[in-house]
């Protein structure tokens, strides 16, 4: 069974999943179903065809529930299989564009870090799977990146 790495970007719809062999994208999936329904089935199917040694994901910012679902699925798979878990912020997969927070609030990345700002007429950026996966750009065993304004 060939070894592979998996990258999941679940910060918006559609859910993006890429399978990488030796760092090169060899399969990709765009899934418009609920992540909680689709991801376990896809993980099962892929684990029958590949030995998944690395599981990577966009760990935020974005929808708390979407991030949590992806994290729990991948963390569970990592524990069950011994795969390594990696995380990286979502700005790496959308060209650094703002990411929807709620209403007219958007997450932006600046020199001060990730913040939420009010933006009128902002259009959601498109996320994309990279053609090459470089895990040295990810954090090992990274948990969800929740960004919350003070209340």
Descriptors:
151 residues; alpha+beta; 2 helices; single chain; 9 strands; globular; 6-stranded mixed β-sheet
Written description of the protein model:
This protein has about 150 residues and is of the alpha+beta class. The protein contains 2 helices and 9 strands; from the N terminus they run βββαβαβββββ. Strand 6 and strand 7 form a beta hairpin. Helix 1 runs parallel beside helix 2. The longest helix has 18 residues. The termini are far apart.
Which helices and strands appear, and what pairs or packs with what?
Blueprint: E1 3-9, E2 15-21, E3 24-31, H1 35-49, E4 51-58, H2 64-81, E5 84-88, E6 99-102, E7 105-110, E8 113-118, E9 139-140
Parallel strand pairs: 1-4, 4-5
Antiparallel strand pairs: 1-2, 2-3, 5-9, 6-7, 7-8
Helix pairs in contact: 1-2
Entry summary:
The model has no long low-confidence stretch (mean pLDDT 94).
Shape: globular
How much beta, percentage-wise? 35-45%
Number of strands: 9
Strand line-up in the sheet with most strands? 3-2-1-4-5-9
Q: Cα-atom Rg, whole angstroms?
A: 15 Å
As a percent range, the share of helical residues equals 10-25%
Work out the helix count: 2
List segments where confidence is low: pLDDT < 50 over at least 5 consecutive residues.
none
State the separation between the terminal residues, measured CA to CA. 50 Å
């Amino acid at each position: 069974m060939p070894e592979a790495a998996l990258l999941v970007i679940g910060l918006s719809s559609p859910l993006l999943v890429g399978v990488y062999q030796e760092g090169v994208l060899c399969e990709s999936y765009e899934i418009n179903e609920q992540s909680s329904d689709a991801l376990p089935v896809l993980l099962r199917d892929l684990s029958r065809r590949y030995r998944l040694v690395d599981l990577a994901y966009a760990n935020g910012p974005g929808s708390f529930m979407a991030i949590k679902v992806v994290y729990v699925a991948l963390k569970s798979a990592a524990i069950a299989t011994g795969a390594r878990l990696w995380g990286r912020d979502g700005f790496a997969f959308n060209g650094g564009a703002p990411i929807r927070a709620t209403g007219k609030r958007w997450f932006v990345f600046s020199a001060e870090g990730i913040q939420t700002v009010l933006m009128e007429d902002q259009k959601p950026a498109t996320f994309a799977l990279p053609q090459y996966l470089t895990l040295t750009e990810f954090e090992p065993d990274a948990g969800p990146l929740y960004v919350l304004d003070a209340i």
